[in-house]
Design brief:
Length: about 375
């Protein structure tokens, strides 16, 4: 008989626990390095297109020219929003009071029904891959469509051949973006596609391990991403820059926040003990775009790292992805409410790579807990009446 006794106590937050084997990618926190498959994610963001990296995560290798062209066509043809979803978007935006990640989460859940997705346990591997592509193509349409509905406009369809990032900005704003904005957003989107076994990716794998459909896993992952300790930070990081307002007020504001027990949004990371390599990449992207917001952010970063080192000694707290992610998105015209949904748009690609991997070698993820309440069983209270 299999022993039902727990044999291992995992640390709080599962820190350092290896809970899956993966070939999707990994994060090396001491070095400040992360990769997709066997390639540096930062190098991919600097040199490749969103679609090429998407293909890499989906199929495990970089496409040649004809595969890349075929994949781009497939993405264009799959990027169509079903009519029933289009008609539901205004109500979803209204119920959630806007177009944040909570609204997108609801829309993805409804998309599972609209697309007729079935539990992957009942599917052939090719059918699951098809579902993964359909959901990945739909998420940017839903995110942008919700934004437009929340400001009283109609969703618009992508332009075939325009490219993923340009199309995303087009669907948000109704105008094809300047090439430098499309490329800046593309670099951001590539750099955030995947990042080890973070909370939302783990969530996607847990839900997938039950045999559930792709939309169920992506909906749950979006719920995990929405928290301010995970993907909900970039707009808060920019709110902090607004509150600081000018460099000469930064030191006092940052000291007061940390001394009173607050957290500086856009700083600190569970894995990195160095600067987050995504922060370095996106700082470069922001500096290429230029302007007063970038100057403020770089000064605030410099002061914050010093303040954190002084007030939280030994914690190795540096900038994470969120500070410059917020700056880049703001400079490219993405509204703040769309920062976390935009993160979800790119992270869906990583979630889906993990969904495929989990399904290919599955065992239901079912840890155990240590009960620390009063001794059981005890008699029901004599005074308790129903
Ligand atoms: N500001 C101030 N203090 C911090 C910060 C911060 N941003 N981050 C960590 N600390 C401090 C904590 O207060 C704690 O101090 P203590 O030991 O005196 O209590 C210590 O550093 C360790 O903090 P933990 O919460 O144990 O670190 P953990 O690894 O669990 O958390 C996290 C990582 C959640 C990212 C944390 O650094 C944080 O809250 N950062 C701010 C929010 C943020 O930027 N989130 C985005 C993360 S990136 C992403 O998910 C894509």
């Amino acid at each position: 008989m299999v022993s039902m006794t727990a044999t291992l106590d995992a640390p709080k937050g599962l820190e350092g626990v290896v809970a899956a084997e993966t070939t999707v990618g990994s994060v090396r926190g001491i070095e400040g390095f992360y990769h997709y498959r066997q390639y540096s994610a930062v190098e991919l963001a600097r040199t490749a297109s969103f679609e090429d990296v998407w293909f890499l995560l989906l199929y495990g290798y970089l496409p040649d020219r004809s595969e890349a062209a075929r994949f781009a066509t497939q993405v264009d043809e799959t990027s169509v929003m079903p009519d029933d979803l289009i008609s539901m978007l205004p109500a979803i935006a209204r119920c959630h009071g806007g177009c944040g990640l909570d609204a997108l989460r609801s829309a993805i859940s409804l998309a599972g029904g609209s697309l007729g997705l079935r539990p992957w346990l009942d599917l052939e591997p090719d059918e699951l891959r098809h579902d993964v592509l359909r959901v990945s193509c739909l998420v940017p349409l839903l995110a942008a469509g919700l934004r437009r509905c929340s400001v009283g406009e109609c969703p618009i369809a992508p332009v075939p051949g325009a490219g993923f990032a340009a199309n995303y900005l087009y669907m948000l704003t109704g105008t094809l973006p300047r090439p430098e904005h499309a490329r800046a957003v593309e670099k951001y989107l590539i750099s955030t596609m995947d990042h080890g076994l973070n909370a939302s990716t783990f969530t996607a794998r847990v839900v997938t391990s039950t045999g559930a459909d792709v939309a169920a896993a992506v909906t749950a992952a979006a719920g995990a991403l929405s928290g301010p300790l995970h993907g909900g930070a970039p707009s808060r990081a920019l709110d902090s820059l607004d509150a600081i307002g000018a460099v000469d007020r930064a030191e006092e504001w940052l000291r007061d926040t940390v001394s009173s027990g607050g957290r500086l949004m856009g700083f600190g990371h569970r894995i990195y003990r160095t600067e987050d390599p995504r922060a370095a990449l996106l700082r470069d992207v922001a500096e290429e775009l230029g302007g007063p917001l970038v100057e403020l952010a770089t000064e605030v970063e410099r002061i914050a790292v010093r303040v954190l080192a002084e007030l939280k000694p030994g914690r190795d707290l540096y900038t994470n992805v969120e500070l410059y992610a917020g700056v880049v998105m703001e400079l490219c015209g993405i509204p703040r409410e769309m920062f976390t949904p935009t993160f979800a748009v790119s992270r869906t690609i990583g979630w889906c790579a993990h969904i495929l991997e989990q399904a290919a070698d599955n065992r239901i993820i079912r840890p155990t807990s240590r009960y620390v309440g009063p001794d059981a069983p005890q008699p029901l209270p004599a005074t308790w009446a129903r």
